[in-house]
Amino acid sequence: MSEEQATWQQAPAAEANEIQHSLFGEILDWMLAPLLLLWPMSIAITYLVAKSIANQPFDHALEDNVTVLAQQVREVDGQLAERLSGPARDILRADDIDSVYYQISGPHANVVDGDRDLPLPQTPPEPDSFRAGAVNFRNESLHGTPIRVAYSYINLEQDKNREPRLALVQVAETLEKRAKLANEIIKGVILPQFIILPIVLALVWFALSRGLLPLAELQERIRARPEDDLSPIQPNQVPEEITPLVRSLNDMLERLKLSIDMQKRFIADAAHQMKTPLAGMRMQSELALRQTDQGEIHRSLEQLAKSSEAATRLVNQLLALARAENQPQAGAAFEPLELAELARNTVRDWVQASFNYRIDLGFEPPAEQVPILGKPLMLREMLSNLIDNALRYTPAGGAVTVRVRRAGEHGILEVEDNGPGIPPAERSHVFERFYRILGSTAEGSGLGLAIVREVAQQHEAELDLFANPRCSDPKRPGCLFRLTFPLRPPEPPDNEEVPHFG
User: Which of 5, 289, 456, 480 is the most buried (most CB within 10 A)?
Assistant: First the structure.
């Protein structure tokens, strides 16, 4: 085996290995992949929700501190003062985890009390906020540490008709307690998932195994079948989703059974047909061995030669039919050819045989070329069988004509004779293997027209059988075999420029 052949044989196997995959694994991937992708997203969303939940109680505490501190702010003799004592300040700053800051500033942003480093709000207050004593929140950073700030504006102007004078009260704290609470919430949500996730994976694995169990059972039933059992599989024994697959498999089994039956009939018919010439050859050879008269020996040898010729013709037709049936149907294997030239050369090969039959064999060429795509050897075999069939069934003195013509987008090949013809009831059967019309005295095996049908189907040619319209004798209506081929598409001229894009 050459390296090229080995590579060619290994290519389909490699391709099959590339496309083969596990249905169980694919379903498992499609189920687990979204789960594993959604799990980190769930953790991120849980973290954001936990932070929001953790902020609420501590924001309420900051709001209370701002409200209490704002109640201690008063204006005395035009000066801003607060009544917060030292113990009260200690209570305000008392926190075991976070650092707490506060600040009281006057209308001109002058810090009256508290931590001077605490940043002021960046946005001016809204008029309604300080009238209602609303508490707002923002996130800031103090000395590089993130803090949460609650602040409120106080209107020092008692006269509502005058321009307000605003004091600012701020209370801030670091985020240690909030982060700790958020982490506790996340742990309470995430840790159970580490326990649930393996259980979910195990349940998914078990569910898939149970769901695909009918496939394994179907595989076992098919594997347990005898080799010659091509009966259909009962669709009611499989799940509904597998029913289309089972129906397709049943269709394939039906086609396979039909093909095997046809092959068995073909072998049986071929063996039966071979028995006749072989038995005749054996009988004539035994008869020749017993004869002493030279004349009788000569006649026995003549019969032996005829039987061997019939056997050779039968074997050749069997090989031709097998070759025709096993030819690939790919149009790429065809080659361009001229139908008239092929027909002329084939007719020329049968001229001598027509003299022996004393039949006028003629050829009518077309007025124009008839280009088609085809396989020359198979087409010559097909036309030879049509000519042979016509010569055998046409009486001496008759005529056989091969005609090629062009009709629109099709090429026509016709073989006509003025023999006894074929009854209309028999025309649908004469193309079957080994079929012969009852009462026919002409020698033949019944394979010639079967070969014609196979070759015509390969070339997508339409095959028709009529009575010869040129015959006027009702006792000899003749036959007209017509094959209609699609014409070969015209080839572009050699000087045609190929357009370039880009």
Answer: 456
- Give tens-digit pLDDT for 306-340: 777 767 766 776 666 666 666 555 444 788 999 99
Tokens standing for 472? Answer: 């006027």
DSSP 3-state percent helix, strand, coil across the chain (nearest 5): 55, 20, 30
Q: How far apart, in whole angstroms, are the C-alpha atoms of residue 485 and residue 482?
A: 10
Same domain, yes or no: 441 and 316: no
- Any domain includes 497: no
Quick one: 278 and 393 in the same domain? no
Measure the CA angle with vertex 194, ends 192 and 196; round to 5°: 70
The domain containing residue 470 runs over which residues?
Answer: 330-486
Based on the fold, state whether residues 263 and 313 are members of the same structural domain.
yes
Classify residue 293 as left (phi > 0), alpha (psi -120 to 50) or beta: beta
CA distance 473 to 399: 14
Q: Are residues 374 and 455 in the same domain?
A: yes
pLDDT tens string 141-177: 988 899 999 998 887 776 667 777 788 889 999 988 8
CATH of the domain at 443: 3.30.565.10
Whether 226 maps to a domain, the answer reads no
Sign, CA dihedral 331-337-342-344, equals positive
Position 124 confidence tier, pLDDT thresholds 50, 70, 90: confident
Sign of CA dihedral 228, 234, 238, 241: positive
Same domain for 314 and 439, yes or no, is no
Return the SS3 of 163.
Answer: coil
pLDDT value for 7: 46
Q: How confident is the model at residue 501 (pLDDT cuts 50, 70, 90)?
A: very low
Say yes or no: 344 and 314 in one domain.
Answer: no
Q: Is the pTM of this model over 0.90?
A: no
Question: What is the predicted pLDDT for the residue at 337?
Answer: 93
Segment 405-425 mean pLDDT: 91
- Identify the CATH number of the domain in which residue 246 sits: 1.10.287.130
- Apex 396 CA angle, 391 and 397, nearest 5: 110
Q: In this structure, are residues 130 and 156 in contact, taking their beta carbons and an 8 Å threshold?
A: no
Query: Any idea what the CATH number is for the domain that residue 100 is in?
Result: 3.30.450
Domain membership of residue 451 (yes or no) is yes
pLDDT of residue 253: 86
389, 421: one domain: yes
What is the per-residue pLDDT across 166-217, written as a single tens digit (0 to 9) for each?
888 899 999 888 888 888 888 887 778 778 878 888 888 888 888 778 888 8
User: Which tokens hold the place of 396?
Assistant: 């001496």
Q: How far is residue 313 from each of residues 318, 355, 363, measured CA to CA in Å?
A: 9, 19, 25
Task: Domain count for the chain, please give it.
Answer: 3
